[in-house]
Amino acid sequence: MKYSYFPGCSLKATGRAYEESFLSLCKALDMEMEELENWNCCGATSFMSVEMGAAYALTIRNLAIAEKAGLDMVAPCGGCYGILLKADHYYKKYPTVHESAVKSLKTEGLEYKGTVRVRHPLDVLASDLPPRALRSKVKKPLKGLKVACYYGCRFVRPIAPFDDMHNPETMDLLLKTVGARIVDYTMKGKCCGGAMSGAMPNVAQEMTYLILRAAERAEADVVATACPLCQFNLEAYQDEIRAAHPDLKPIPVVYFTQLLGVALGLDATATALNRQIVPVEPILREKGILADEKKQPATAGV
Amino acid sequence: MSSIQRQIRFESDRDPGFADEIRAMPGCELIDRCIQCATCSGVCPVSTYMELTPRRIIELTRNGFKQDVLNANTIWICTSCYECQVECPKEIGITDVMYALKTKAIQAGVEPKHLGPPVLFKEFYNMVRKTGRMSETQLAVRSFIKSNPMQMWGMKWLGLRLLKTGRFSVKLEHMPKPSVLHTALDHADRIDGRRAK
Predict the structure, then answer these.
(1) Does the residue A128 lie in any domain?
(2) What are B68-79's pLDDT values in tens digits?
(3) CB-closest option in A58, A99, A165 to B185
(4) Is residue B94 in some structural domain?
């Protein structure tokens, strides 16, 4: 299985662990990801707040390049995924968006016919693999690990091609497949604050606090995410949040691809667990999923 | 704060052409369907911080109260999580209306000059227009300098945590060939009302 891969800007920076763990996982599952040529930023929420015509043209340019490659386009970042889907949809629905993008693409000799299928790793892993492909590869089932799956907004809003808009559960199913126990909690689709974490920290940190508190009350050992901004907002500001809410205990926040990698027995480089600010290894060792450090021979590499 | 201002709106405050401009933007064509049920305000995770709730924004927008909506903090607090949009019983593109109002406010030059979100959006826009990609650290630093330089001091521990985990990068990322994007974007229409170059 071969796909066009649209990494987006965050997966090359703070979301590095997502790219590393996702690409290793794909390798282990024989899925080929080919990075899109000369891709540009999707525009996220910011570009569109300043200039709308260019914003759609910017996003559609990536779709046009992917169409040339002729493969499904996989975008792991929630922000990229959502905006690519929306731009594709609006390109077909609104003549103003269409005309503007056509003019823009023409300068590069590109055109977009509207045939690209924008996919998210959750969708691809849940729907494209042959039955039991994932389960048969599990080496270290995540037995006893209580996971709160956090979806946030973009996988199902405003457009939901692969999951339920109001109660998404693809991530639950994938992690259940590899043995994790999924906890039910109320905040799985609430906004993490998005770009507000930098622009209005007090507002965003209040939002992430409510999500983390709900996960904690559901007795989750770890929160799983599928977007670099969600992961960052939920994990990186826990110390700052604790200043206002001392009751919040540190809780590891990982990418679902990292947990799948652990279950498949991939090595430390492949799962990128060393990139965690709130370490996740202690709980994985406690549950007997990762081998105890002390018991490992001294020569074992990390 | 000390100046005393009229608290009710007059017919003469309206700019009906403004409502039409908004209706013409993608996703905003259904604002007249609004039944003022306030589902949007109820599901919004940040409406508690807003001067005007989303419900009021829709009503004021479709009646042409341009100054009120463009000067409300609402449009900058919206995180565009689309919860209002998917829950709206009349399927109105409320998040798209927020985007439309943001572009209009920036176009009119009335966006708050030191408030985090508009500063961030403009810096993001300038960076992506130039390099074709977004560089997180550079964007954060540039935005803080223009909005709240003191905030950077508070971010030092966050920086350290990122550095320790190998997630910190000061490099300015760019496309291999950003020039093609410059030309392409210069030829896009200004569907937010501005005239094309």
Answers:
(1) no
(2) 999 999 999 999
(3) A58
(4) yes
Question: Looking at the structure, do residues B15 and B102 belong to the same domain, yes or no?
Answer: yes
* Domains contained in chain B, number: 2
Q: ipTM for the complex?
A: 0.94
d(CA A194, CA A57): 23
- Chain B residues in contact with A48 by the CB 8 A cut-off are 99, 103
Q: A87 and A11 share a domain?
A: yes
For residue A282, what is the domain's CATH number? 3.40.50.11810
Distance from the Cα of B73 to chain A's closest Cα (Å) equals 12
B191 vs A52, A108, A199: nearest CB: A52
Q: Residue A162 is part of which domain span?
A: 133-295
**Which pLDDT value is given to residue A301?**
47
> In chain A, which among 84-123 make CB contacts under 8 A with chain B?
90, 93-94, 96-97, 99-101, 103-108
Residue indicated by tokens 């700019």:
B15
Backbone torsion region of residue A147, taken as left when φ is above 0, otherwise alpha when ψ lies between -120 and 50, otherwise beta: beta
A190 in B contact zone (CB under 8 Å)? yes
Residues A285, A161, single domain; the answer is: yes
